[in-house]
Design a protein that fits this description.
Length: about 425
């Protein structure tokens, strides 16, 4: 199943075209509204937000260019141009977004963040607004939260069945640290919410679950959720210190960003709590190197961390137009023998996918489970490649192998894998 619902984007990134609707091209409709004064600006912003939701976009970018204000939608991880709006309307559009997000309208020299509640616009979705000053004026990015963002079950995310089983087993442990890694917009938050819901649905006595997030993207019943506020001194590390005095059993930390948060989280996983968090790294094995670089002692890491899930989101082929495709020289150079003897499909584009060739996304992943051999290597502070090889020896399926399996099934393409996967060293390619 797809991690996100079907998108209705416009043309491929290679030849973007403005999406049309029964009311005409988006650019023309917005231009007409912008000529109707202040009320027209509000209606234009509402129309842009509603169109983005209708097309399945995760983000809207209002980007100030030299002569225009570009409106771009991110659909299934890719940016598509949607409208070029008059430069003269730029300040009014950004101001309207600030009003909706309840942030300071007259502050134009500093970045700001705010939230639009679902009932504030006809789009009917909660959104996060971020503004940023540039030499051509303020840039605004709107993140649209999925209606089912926090309600997807674990088995709807697209993981292989053995990965699901292992994740469920890790959730049953009374203590330890489970870390998720991957770049921005790789589905980590959606996965964490699915894991929390998995625990909420457990037939056993419900555990006391608390979260520290930035921001809270989806409100969960029977979970004590909190939101950091660095301006008030309520940072991840301060919140985590205080939270451990609240008798928690499961602690979700939105992100490990600094050495102090890393140390507290790892120690909490060692002292009777199940900690779930995210940390930025290219691979599952790379997370251990990152923690070591943050100054966390290897014996603490080995004693506390029970598993690391590295994930990416790949676009799913449109089933209406996908066609057989032969791997090219770049695919063979990148994936080597991993593609030999396999059949693959490629994106074409049709009315069903509005010319993109893809509809929705799904997850690919590698799940590293910590064993005694890996702990020994951690104590020796070996290189990431050696940790990765030990994990493969212990049964981990590398994310590249997982992706190639999904491409061979016709779920996605080799081009998508090349777009989202980390650069592979010769050692890792050999182990895949």
């Amino acid at each position: 199943m797809a991690l996100f619902s079907r998108s209705h984007g416009a043309a491929p990134a290679e030849a973007d075209a403005v999406q049309t609707s029964p009311d005409g091209p988006l650019e023309g409709r917005l231009a007409a509204l912008l000529e109707a004064g202040e009320d027209g600006v509000a209606r234009a912003v509402d129309a842009a937000l509603a169109e983005a939701v209708a097309q399945g976009a995760s983000d809207l970018h209002f980007e100030p260019w030299m002569d225009v204000l570009a409106l771009r939608f991110r659909i299934d991880g890719m940016l598509h141009d949607r409208a070029m709006l008059p430069k003269a309307a730029q300040a009014r559009i950004v101001s309207r977004l600030k009003v909706l997000a309840r942030i300071v309208v007259y502050e134009r020299q500093l970045p700001q963040d705010g939230r639009i509640e679902a009932a504030a616009t006809p789009a009917g979705r909660p959104m996060r607004v971020s503004t940023f000053p540039t030499v051509y004026g303020e840039k605004a990015v709107v993140r649209i939260f999925e209606a089912d963002h926090g309600s997807l079950p674990l088995d709807a995310l697209g993981f292989q069945s053995d990965t699901e089983r292992s994740l469920r087993a890790l959730l049953t442990t009374p203590h330890g640290t489970l870390l998720l890694t991957g770049p921005s917009s790789s589905g980590k938050t959606t996965t964490i919410y699915a894991l929390l819901r998995e625990m909420l649905g457990d037939a056993a006595p419900r555990r006391h679950i608390v979260t520290i997030e930035d921001p809270v993207e989806c409100r969960l019943d029977r979970v004590a959720q909190s939101e950091v506020n660095p301006a008030a001194g309520f940072t991840f590390q301060e919140a985590l210190r205080a939270l451990l005095r609240q008798d928690p059993e499961v602690v979700m930390v939105g992100e490990i960003r600094d050495a102090e948060t890393a140390r507290i989280a790892v120690q909490a996983g060692l002292t009777g709590h199940l900690v779930i968090s995210t940390i930025h790294s290219g691979t599952a094995a790379g997370v251990f190197t990152r923690l070591l670089d943050m100054g966390v002692e290897p014996f603490l890491i080995g004693s506390s961390v029970t598993g690391v899930l590295a994930q990416r989101l790949v676009r799913r082929l449109c089933p209406s137009c996908a066609a057989p495709a032969e791997p090219g020289p770049t695919h063979r150079a990148r994936f080597g023998s991993g593609i030999e003897g396999r059949a693959f499909r490629g994106a074409v584009g049709c009315p069903e996918c509005v010319g993109i060739g893809y509809r929705g996304r799904t997850a690919i992943a590698e799940l590293l489970e910590v064993d005694d051999a890996l702990v020994t290597l951690l104590l020796e502070r070996v290189r990431t490649a050696e940790l990765h090889a030990a994990a493969v020896d212990n049964g981990m399926r590398p994310i590249e192998a997982d992706g190639l399996a999904r491409a061979a099934e016709g779920v996605t393409t080799l081009d998508e894998l090349m777009r989202v996967l980390p650069v592979v060293t010769s050692h890792r390619r050999a182990t895949s």
